[in-house]
Amino acid sequence: MDSLTLIAVISIVMAGLTTGFGTMGPALAEGRAVATALTALAQQPDASATITRTLFVGLAMIESTAIYCFVVSMILIFANPFWNHAITQVAGN
Amino acid sequence: MRLSPDEIIFWQYGLIKLNATIVFTWALMLVLVVGSLLVTRKLSRNLTRSRWQNLLEILVTGIEKQILEVGLRDARTYLGFLGTLFLFVAAASLATIIPGYEPPTGSLSTTTALALCVLVAVPFFGIADQGLGGYLKSYMEPTFLMLPFNLISEVSRTLALAVRLFGNMMSGAMIIAILLTITPFFFPILMTALGLLTGLVQAYIFSILAAVYIAAATRSRKPKPQSAPKP
Fold it and tell me: Which end of chain B is more exposed for a tag (fewer CB within 10 A), N or C?
């Protein structure tokens, strides 16, 4: 395998792995957060505005880790610096 | 496939490029500014008012109420900045129902600019509220050992603000583009509707987080409004 194929294979595999493993933790965390918020809502319906706002902000914080993984895998697929470097080297020769 | 609307270039002269991000940002600004100018040109003070005035009043009072709930005391001071952030991000994602439009918040340049505005606005409001010394002292809370961590958090939350908005917007556009090639008729519409919802949630979160950061920078000196009643 030449280096171009190697870079392509590793990039694609790592992009899948990054999103796959990177979304597992945030998914579990968001499930726990929503479950706890629902329990709190059932116990204190009067505080629903505060609970909902805090829940949204917290969910955004948790979800941003998954978004980071997604951005990294998108960079690996569509804007890979190593791939671009290898392509320019091949084109130069 | 492209990652951001930066790569659509309408016009180029040497180094000066006019890409889709700039064009749609300015179009949105024009729509927002001219629209609000047209609405506020003839305001009524009695009970009969136009529906556009009602819309703007609902928006302004709603944003003001949210700012108050976060814990900022005089909401009118921060209404301009936070309301502009919310309205721009919300309008940028709501306008995706127009065909041919690409949300400018799907470009990392726009979201970085918005996050840098928050990075500048937090010390600005903090110094305006409690003076230079009082604001700088808030970096030493609770002890001076926390100084590097406070500085790191200042940078990392700006990065998080930028990448969160960019990632959400870009992923919405990309999922729709991928679905258009697989199941071209029905599912992209559903995902567009879902994208409208996530866009509004992200606009809300962006402005609420900016409000929380400003509240953290301005509130530390002020006493609590009410303490717990003594038994």
Answer: C
State the average pLDDT over residues B9-14: 81
What is the structure's pLDDT at B219?
A: 67
The mean pLDDT value for B99-111 works out to 88
At A41, which CATH number? 1.20.20.10
Distance CA B228, CA B60 (A): 33
Cβ of residue B2 closer than 8 Å to a chain A Cβ: yes
Give the position of tokens 């127009």: B98
Return the half-sphere exposure (C-beta side, CA atoms, 13 A cut-off) of residue B53. 11
Residue A19 maps to a domain = yes
Q: Please name the member of B1, B160, B201 whose beta carbon is closest to the beta carbon of A56.
A: B201
Report the residue of chain A nearest B200, measured CA to CA: A56
Q: Token pair for residue A23? A: 């979304």
> Would you say residue B230 has pLDDT above 60?
no
In chain B the first and final C-alpha atoms are separated, in Å, by 66
Q: Where are the domains of chain B?
A: 5-41+48-218
Which spans in chain A are helix H? 3-22, 24-43, 48-78, 81-92
Give residue A48's domain range: 3-87
